[in-house]
Amino acid sequence: MSSFDTEATEKEILRFLEARTKRPWGTDADLFASGGLSSLFAMELVVHLEKSFGISVRGADLRLDNFRTVTAMTALVERLRTPAGGATDE
Amino acid sequence: MTRAPRTAPDPHTAVSHRIAVLGAGVMGVGITALALGHGVPVLLVDIDEERLDRARDDIDRELRMAQLMGRLPAAADTRALELATGTGAVGDATAVVEAVTEIADIKATVLADVSARVRPGTPLISNTSSIPIDELAGHAERAEDVVGTHFMNPPYLIPTVEVIRGARTGENTMTGVGALLTVLTRRQVVVKDAPGFVTSRVLHPMINDAARVVQEGTATVEDVDALMEGCLGHPTGPLRTADLIGIDNLVDSLRVLHQRTGDEGCRPCDLLLDKVRQGELGRKSGRGFYVYQEENR
């Protein structure tokens, strides 16, 4: 687990978003801004990221800001996949 | 499953509370999550082993949802949760919350059982949505210990709890339930005992009418909710609310109201009965008036 494919991760998150919401999104669009998605949908994003990328989102990482944009979610996935002190599998 | 790091106990939580929750359905799970989220240990009892097996994951998901929405502290987890298929261990609970099926006989049997197991003076809290508290209190060993609360779903999100004082509910019981709700950071509004109290007596016939309007073809589900939200300021729309309550629970509650008030507006309409027959119970079954993604229940 040395390299992280940012572009592929963004692409996968966008694919999921577009399939579920039936509308296109930019990587920096605020998903929860007015007229956007409900915060209930954020939990769906959490579960999807966990399943797709083998991560576990817990404690202080469970903040809406981490799921507000595709860029933020990609950064979260990258951080949780490569924990400080070396990558380990569960 | 990854284990969360151990953290020091929050000094603001009262370590003295330890509640037993009876019934691991939607409300039992929600109330358990709310309690754990405020540092109160919970013994969750359900006779259905399969449901109990799912409960830890259900509670974990609810806690995480609450954290995501900034409603519960980040440290909340399910370590202080104990699960049991019987009431044998309820004896040292500081309060018991009964959240079993909304059928008077079942609630009566459960209250009779636990009242014989707990210390006298332990509040026996029925989370009924419509059955009069004094009717249930008659089945407990000490009627003065029985009180009603009506938490709404999801409990972590809704700051106010309707508290029902039965004719025989004791002063100590009122104090006890008030103290528990304070620890859970809920605001209480105390009302008198009657079928459906205030919230169900007003809301449930209204939802029944909303379903009847759809049944009669006046408007679609979406349009009924859009009008009730957009014109009247209802936060989620009555039919989305029905999905959140659980259409089976709603029908049970309407029957209780109809039997006890004689109000024909409380007789569950055919569309609600059809939904129950088809297993379309709302969010918990993935489909009710709306369709829900599995991950999003």
TrEMBL record, chain A:
Protein name: Acyl carrier protein
Alphabetical list of Gene3D superfamilies matching this protein: ACP-like
Signal peptide as annotated in the record: none
Top-rank lineage group of the source organism: Bacteria
Domain Carrier, residue spans: 4-81
UniProtKB/TrEMBL annotation, chain B:
Coiled coil location: none
Source superkingdom: Bacteria
Pathway(s) per entry: Lipid metabolism; butanoate metabolism
Annotated transmembrane regions: 20-45
Record flagged with keyword ATP-binding: no
Residue intervals of the 3-hydroxyacyl-CoA dehydrogenase C-terminal domain: 196-292
Keywords from the UniProt entry: Membrane, Oxidoreductase, Transmembrane, Transmembrane helix
Domain 3-hydroxyacyl-CoA dehydrogenase NAD binding: 19-193
Pfam families given in the database record: 3HCDH, 3HCDH_N
Gene3D superfamilies, per the entry: N-(1-d-carboxylethyl)-l-norvaline Dehydrogenase, domain 2, NAD(P)-binding Rossmann-like Domain
Family to which this protein belongs: Belongs to the 3-hydroxyacyl-CoA dehydrogenase family.
Name of the protein in question: 3-hydroxyacyl-CoA dehydrogenase family protein
Lineage: Bacteria, Bacillati, Actinomycetota, Actinomycetes, Kitasatosporales
